[in-house]
Write a structure and sequence with these properties.
It contains five helices and no strands. The protein has about 110 residues and is mainly α. The chain has one domain. The chain is elongated, with a radius of gyration of 17 Å.
Length: about 110
């Protein structure tokens, strides 16, 4: 996330990019809820309350993030950001992909990937 924050300083004035990065932050908060959730209400309950629901919600949001990512990249390419500042564009793309990879690893087991 640190490399993303550096890029925001330069490219942060772009509203769709800002929205996308805010959605990544929201996703990270949701992942914390998935990971730590609420504690079981009884010793016989194996998983935290609402775990499956939260995981389903997080996976849906993850798919939405990829759609938003495609939209942001398309806008930046059409706006010629990638040609006017290719280094920044590449760093942005790499940072976003790294964040998405970490999110994916948090949501899916290796068998599900």
């Amino acid at each position: 996330m640190n490399s993303l924050l550096e890029i925001i300083k330069h490219e942060g004035s772009r509203p769709r990019l800002r929205h996308f990065l805010d959605q990544i932050k929201q996703m990270k908060k949701l992942l914390i809820r998935v990971r730590y959730g609420s504690y079981p209400s009884s010793p016989f309950q194996e998983e935290p309350c609402g775990y499956k629901h939260l995981l389903k919600e997080a996976r849906h949001k993850y798919q939405s993030l990829w759609n938003l990512y495609e939209e942001v990249m398309r806008i930046m390419i059409e706006g010629k950001v990638c040609k006017s500042n290719p280094t920044s564009f590449i760093k942005l793309d790499q940072a976003i992909c790294e964040e998405m990879k970490q999110i994916h690893q948090s949501l899916y087991t290796p068998e599900e990937s």
